[in-house]
Amino acid sequence: MGCITKHYLNEYSLMGVWKIEEDIKTLLDMAELDSSDRKRYRDFRSNSRKLEFLSVRALLAELIGKEARIVYNKNNKPFIKSGSHFISISHSFKLTAIMLSTNEQVGIDLEYMNANISAFMSKFMNRKEKITKDPELSRYHLYLHWCAKEALYKICDKEGISIKNNIILKPFKPGDSGEIKGRVRTEKINSWFDLSYTRYDNYAIVWTKKKIL
């Protein structure tokens, strides 16, 4: 299917989502890999991981051109090699998402909602955060918390942040789409962020951006 959405959030930032329905050969033809990409690609053992990798490159080409290249820092945080954009990447099951901006830091996370997430909610939820008692919405609400915290973790460069203890979300009622307020507080960071979310089929998707001061 390829790119299912390309959404400009403002004049600086855009987001794209790709649905993986192609085989490896088709995606290899769509994603132009340089020598660094090919080396990284050869290290993957599973076909699913190869498909994820190729879908990211194909989606990136769709969003900002085939010449764009991704590099990673020591924490495995992705960057555009030319420095033209900030980037955040997420993939789960059959979807891949990329968020890009020329002057805003970005974070995005999506999850396919197939796990018993309540079994490990204690790993990311703190006592100040509440989940709806509606049994039809509670699982989705937990996934939104998880995705929101992952998006904030990414936008803050990951290092030294506890998803459970350093990131807290203000209470919100889950809908098909909406807004969330989140705070990251560590010895180095004390900032509030505005997050947006949406539901696509059985996926939860949350993203955030913040202008660089």
What layout of secondary structure does this protein have?
Elements: E1 2-8, E2 13-19, H1 24-30, H2 35-42, H3 47-64, E3 70-72, E4 78-80, E5 86-92, E6 95-101, E7 104-112, H4 138-155, E8 167-169, E9 177-185, E10 190-200, E11 203-211
Antiparallel strand pairs: 1-2, 2-6, 3-4, 5-6, 7-11, 8-9, 9-10, 10-11
Helix pairs in contact: 1-3
Explain this structure to me?
By secondary structure, the protein is of the alpha+beta class. The protein folds into 2 domains: 101 residues, 4'-phosphopantetheinyl transferase domain (Ribosomal Protein L22, Chain A, Alpha-Beta Complex); 103 residues, no CATH class. It has 4 helices and 11 strands. The strands form 3 sheets. It has a 5-stranded antiparallel β-sheet, with helices on one face. Strands 1-2-6-5 form a 4-stranded antiparallel β-sheet, with helices on one face. A two-stranded antiparallel ribbon has the order 3-4. Strand 5 and strand 6 form a beta hairpin. The mean pLDDT is 93.
